[in-house]
Design a protein that fits this description.
TIM Barrel; 327 residues; globular; eight-stranded parallel sheet
Length: 327
């Protein structure tokens, strides 16, 4: 059961969540908060002894803060959140809140396997500075995660969250796509403001935008590889791993799409496809951290059991960036 202190925080937070302005988020009568824009999903730096390196985290944030991002995502897949303790997850959110520019939004991944644990983590992350909770689908019992089960889960979390909730579907890691019918139902909840979809199926993204058009519900693309296509279909931004190293270019692609410069957007999108694939599905977090080292950020090692790239993989990673003119 939730402890008395947690329940007290939940009740207090819920009473404020839909009536306050959260660190500059525009929210009027009957209007959900606006999450439109580009967000880099921040990596978690580790020392050689696998401890969280908070100093390097802050250094990376100061560099990333020079780009016109809408905000930052912490404890997403690129943050290696399954490998962190609960106290580390909260400390990372707290440190990011303190280090990031005050006018940016902080979306914190609070998803856990159980509804109870997710509520508790969401409340705790709100207390240490998160502006919104990005909640990944529970997946260990994926065979039982029906639309009804997921609707129940997200509804309970949103009911009890003191901050807005963003749905998060990442089937490459969970083996589970959040069903469109569940998204449509959940979009009607007053404390669910949008969704990050990392599946890469742009027809699905377009369908979700279409079916939630009567709700104040926003969709974020989960990768730079299909960012232009997502904008064309009505998405409002993206959470893009590639923005950790090509932040200016991803923000430029956003501007080109928003201003209708589709020919230039297409040219830039083409040059981002291979680098994006390299730091996502091809080489994953080890690849992203390696390229961060090359671009003047601190990538460093991953936490076990993730392994560093082999020399051959490093060379292939380098080629994906050099062949497109980025190195």
């Amino acid at each position: 059961m939730l402890g008395p202190q947690v329940w007290s925080s939940v009740r207090q937070g819920l009473s404020r969540s839909l009536s306050r302005n959260v660190r500059g988020w525009a929210s009027g009568e009957g209007k959900k908060v606006d999450i439109a824009g580009i967000y880099p999903p921040v990596t978690t730096p580790f020392t050689a002894t696998a401890e969280v390196d908070y100093g390097k985290l802050e250094e990376n944030l100061h560099k990333l803060g020079t780009f016109p991002f809408r905000g930052f995502v912490v404890q997403g897949s690129n943050g290696e959140f399954p490998f962190l303790t609960s106290s580390e997850r909260l400390e990372v959110v707290s440190r990011v809140r303190q280090a990031m520019p005050k006018n940016r939004l902080l979306l914190a991944g609070s998803g856990c396997e159980s509804t109870q644990a997710t509520v508790e983590m969401t409340v705790s992350m709100a207390q240490v500075g998160a502006d919104a909770a990005m909640v990944v689908t529970p997946c260990y019992y994926r065979g039982h995660m029906s639309s009804a089960a997921l609707i129940h889960h997200y509804t309970k979390v949103a009911d009890l969250s003191p901050i807005p909730v963003v749905l998060y579907s990442v089937p490459a890691n969970t083996g589970l796509d959040l069903p469109v019918d569940a998204v449509v139902t959940l979009s009607q909840h007053p404390n669910i403001v949008g969704m990050k979809d990392s599946g890469g199926d742009v027809t699905r993204i377009g369908l979700i935008v279409h079916k939630t058009r009567k709700q104040d519900f926003q969709v974020l693309a989960g990768s730079a590889g299909f960012l232009m296509a997502s904008y064309a279909l009505g998405a409002v931004g993206g959470v893009c791993a590639l923005a950790n190293v090509l932040g200016a270019q991803v923000c430029q692609l956003e501007r080109l799409c928003l201003t209708g410069q589709w020919e230039d957007a297409q040219k830039l999108q083409h040059r981002l496809i291979e680098p994006n694939a390299a730091v996502t599905r091809r080489f994953g977090i080890p690849g992203l951290k390696k390229i961060m080292d090359w671009f003047g950020y601190y990538g460093g090692p991953c936490r076990a059991p993730l392994q560093e790239l082999s020399p051959a993989e490093e060379e292939a990673l380098r080629m994906d960036f050099t062949s497109n003119g980025w190195l």
